[in-house]
Amino acid sequence: MTRQRSEARGQELRGTAASPGIAIGRAYVVDRSRLKIPKRTIDPDEVDEEIARFRRALRVSDRQLEWIKEKIEEREESEHYKIIAAHQLILHDEHVVDETERYIRDEHNNAEWALRKTVEHIKGVFDAIDDDYFRERRSDVDFVGERILRNLLGYDSSVRPPPDAIVVAHDLSPADSIQLFRFAVAALATDAGGKTAHTAIVARSNEVPAVVGLEDVTTAVENGDLLVVDGSRGIVVVQPAAETVAAYRERARKEAARGAALLENRDLPAESVDAVEIALLANVDHVREVKSATDHGAVGVGLFRTEYLFMTSESFPEEEDHYEHAKQVVEALSPHPATFRTFDLGADKVSRLLPDLHSEANPALGLRSMRLCLTSAVRPVFKQQLRGLLRASAHGRARIMFPMISGLRDLQKAREVLDEAKEELWREGRDFDRDVEVGVMVEMPSAAVISDFLAPAVDFLSIGTNDLIQYTLAVDRVNEYVAYAYEPLHPAILRLISMVVGAAKAANVSVGVCGEAAGDPYVAPALVGLGLRELSMNATAIPEIKSKVRSAHVAGLQSLASRLLELRTADEVKHEVRAYYAEAKLGDGEDDD
Q1: Alpha helix locations (H) across 302-401?
Q2: pTM assigned to the model
Q3: Catalytic residue positions?
Q4: Which residue in 51, 304, 539, 568 is deepest, having the highest Cβ count within 10 Å?
Q5: Which domains does the chain have, with CATH numbers?
Q6: Which pLDDT does position 146 carry in this prediction?
């Protein structure tokens, strides 16, 4: 690849802000694009040797992943351990192994080409998934396939950047991402990926700046180029001018000082100037993240994503697994609440566990989440989870939350299973909280519109803004072609949220937000103005949101919200919000748009 370096000097690339912070350093480009896959037809008498060669590559790949897993275990990083364990499961999955061997045996493909065909077929199934987290999991199959392929070809799979390098790649496997932090990398920048990709997750957990979804960073950057990575804004500057570097160094210094100052408020209440307290909770994926949540000032967990317990197993977790998992969370948080969302899986994701379920053209609108839980095939699994969660409620304040509720019928059916679980545990003499709080996620427009019916039937409502925005505006937020239309401050979204808050208030039940909007310092104050008093977010966002709350007058935010509900476009809303924040000194002095 050749380019004019003068053309690249000062070039600003924009992607997705995946992990906040600023880094300045030299590029270390990981080139995965030059792997040539040989294609040839083998003779019948070569079949056995070709299959043996494929199996040797599987064993080598397994040993490599096992070594990585051991290193992770030494550092007690359980969430990363599970990612590599999941890759080992893919490595041995019958769809990978048997399908590749079938291509070798029946079609006389060489092992490399047979593996490529298998991987492409499996990825094709995942391509239809509309859920942003699950869709990005298709890359896991790609990463495992590449590892096997490199071992078939005898290539070195390791990545060894120098200290303080900025790693640039088309994409990074979880194994690559995890190993990189052993080398003290300064930042990550990738062509592919979104906020929920493994690269982003691992970067955030290691507090390393990252920008993903840049599309062409590997084309614009060469080894040794000086880069600035702004993980807060989603910007990468290639070959920056001296004055640009100086400006970013000053920003980095200020951000570090400000972050340290914000953490000093960890034990202070999130109370506004006019004495209104806002409960700031954390969204959590793993037990290990609970400590980080409390360290950042969370007063509970507003969303514990239980589906991740399903992602590293070849079979559904048993009741005891759910109980032990939830018990750890509840005890670690006591006396604060732990809100467990029952598993929110899509049809394509669980097809390996439930092979009788057919693939769907549009899984986001199909058999997923609560709809899946209530099928005859999955209902017993759902009840096992509810039994485990109920038993955990004996150890602290547990709350159970049902996702993707479209109306009263969904809620009634889910509560029937919960009541059955309670009755069984009562007859068995098991301890549990008979009055455990039960709530629903409002993430479908239908649920928001009939929230006045739902609210009296539950103990709390939690607005899932991620899907509420996606379904209301018909916007796939990981599709770069329509990302501009994903607007948390769209008038329709504000009106739906106001409707839900009003319904909860009328029914005298609590209501909160657990979507990404809750942790957005530009959006969160407006949510408070709309009447939200409970916000659940990524733990690292809590200090910033607490600072906003402690600087705000809720009365003023309520007045702002009243004006916003009368506006007609998202641009008008953002203009009004920006003007108010500037006047009330709630901004950070920079363009929030």
Answers
A1: 319-333, 369-373, 379-392
A2: 0.69
A3: 198, 514
A4: 304
A5: 5-33+160-260 (3.50.30.10), 44-153 (1.10.274.10), 265-584 (3.20.20.60)
A6: 79
